[in-house]
Amino acid sequence: MKPIQLPLAVRLRDDATFANYYPGANAAALGYVERACQLEQSWVENFIWLWGAAGAGRTHLLQAACLRAEELGSRSLYLPMTECVGYGTEILDDIENCDLVALDDVQCIVGLAEWETALFHAFNRLRDAGKRLLIGAKASPRELGIELPDLQSRLNTALVFHLHELSDDEKLRALQLRASRRGLYLADEVGGYLLTHTGRSMDNLFSALEKLDEASLQAQRKLTIPFVKEVLF
């Protein structure tokens, strides 16, 4: 069953899968999010909060959960709140009809009374229906600053995971994992060159790898430092 269609352009990344996620210190979070995609879990394990800085993998895990739920025949919904706040709160209406709901960047609704109230009611409907709710934010529930006390008390019941950014060595391994999934061999020295010259943001690294993949396919060349220089710089 495909994800619900919304009046905003929300598209799950095809490569945002569990298989493509290099967990590093976030293995426990990965395990619990994967479990939440199964139908037979209690609410205690069905409400998960992932928090951490940009680049820690919050969005990847949330989208991976939606893709896995879809593969299992469940109805999923991914909502990036950075985009949703530009629409009315009715976007949260009837989300309990989904089996799994992932709300990303929830810090965007802090202090917006209408949105906090809407999320409070949506939370109650999802919980009562026994559905799965995953939330991503830049801070933990207790540190987020929610102003509606009833909503704050609900959010405090989440199973909370702090996602840690990967070390440089782990970023290299994550990049090599992603490359291998694309049928590419990325040597340590080439990956190290990318880390040094494209910035250490995982989004930048994966974007660079995507360009290299396309160029390598067209030119029928392996990934070497000279080829990387030619394509990216």
TrEMBL record:
Pfam families: Bac_DnaA, Hda_lid. This is DnaA regulatory inactivator Hda. Residues 14-160 form the Chromosomal replication initiator protein DnaA ATPAse domain. InterPro entries: DnaA_dom, Hda, Hda_lid, P-loop_NTPase. Residues 168-232 form the Hda lid domain. PANTHER family: CHROMOSOMAL REPLICATION INITIATOR PROTEIN DNAA, DNAA REGULATORY INACTIVATOR HDA.
